[in-house]
Amino acid sequence: MSPLPIGRLAKLTDVKVTTIRFYESIGLLPEPLRTHSDRRIYDEGDVRRLGFIKHARQLGFAVEAIRDLLELSDHPERVCDSANAIAQEQLAAVDAKIAQLGALREELVRMTAAGCSGPAASCRVIESLSDHGLCSADHKPLASQVSV
Amino acid sequence: MSPLPIGRLAKLTDVKVTTIRFYESIGLLPEPLRTHSDRRIYDEGDVRRLGFIKHARQLGFAVEAIRDLLELSDHPERVCDSANAIAQEQLAAVDAKIAQLGALREELVRMTAAGCSGPAASCRVIESLSDHGLCSADHKPLASQVSV
DNA sequence: CTTGATCCTCCACCGACTAGAGGATGCAGA
DNA sequence: TCTGCATCCTCTAGTCGGTGGAGGATCAAG
Questions:
Q1: Which pLDDT value is given to residue B114?
Q2: Nucleic strand C under 7 Å from the C-beta of B143
Q3: What is the per-residue pLDDT across A49-58, written as a single tens digit (0 to 9) for each?
Q4: Which domain holds residue A120?
Q5: Quick count: other Cβ atoms within 10 Å of Cβ B57?
Q6: Is the CB atom of residue A8 positioned under 7 angstroms from any atom of strand D?
Q7: Residue B117: which pLDDT band, with cuts at 50, 70 and 90?
Q8: Mean pLDDT over residues B53-75, rounded?
Q9: One-character DSSP codes across B45-71
Q10: Is residue A79 a part of any domain in this protein?
């Protein structure tokens, strides 16, 4: 197929040039062929592989998970139990995150509901932050896996 | 009140010692008094301030936003318009994130629904990732503000 | 007096990129 | 052919919100 310079690949896949080089550096993309002047050249296969990576990242899969998924994609004869397991885990992580954000949302709504126009001394937002006891207390984020 | 060493403050607030020092280094917590042997000593005021910070972080506020909120909390005579604005923005960001994750969830459910036991060649997960056309195509994360 | 917990500073690392410096090359128009 | 700009190269450092460890000092209890 037609050989693509990195900029063309970037436009075709809507992935930044620097990100493509980054994916190569961490081994998600193989080292491509180079021109006589050391420029990277890609082909249709690279477009597909990068598309796969992009799609997986959009779904929030971590790079290490994507590495495993690509391995399977590269070896279609293997059993795919692990692909399903990875996706299930990701689904669980997304569900957890949604639940967590739902709880956050609730408190933010409560905090902002009253509106506020006076001095900070009587501000519901500041007050809520000062006293955790005022809120439902079951939103406990900090340290989550999904960072989409 | 009783002077607390950093470890006590950490346990009282459930914030790690290293994180407390980090907050000091970025100016969220003031430099505390020190003992003759250079150990930090805190008081009840620090417990409250750190609680405020922790609560705000749990709600997903960025450090810069927390800095502004603490400013207001420190000066209760000022008008608190900005506190409300910050909280409203955070609420909007959380809403956006929830919507986005909802879309991700949909696709993950579709991908994993079939279950999978054969070779990767016929794996729905791998297949879905390879061909973005198979999915609804309106989940477009990458680059979000809320990272709770 | 010794032991183990706690404290100190400084520096490097995490994930997943992003941005910029400083320089080489490619390509199109005059 | 020359000029000039776009694109490419490598390398380094920064982002955010912390986390972890090395190497050493100090504290409190037995």
A1: 77
A2: yes
A3: 999 999 999 9
A4: 98-134
A5: 19
A6: yes
A7: confident
A8: 94
A9: HHHHHHHHHHHHHHTT--HHHHHHHHH
A10: no
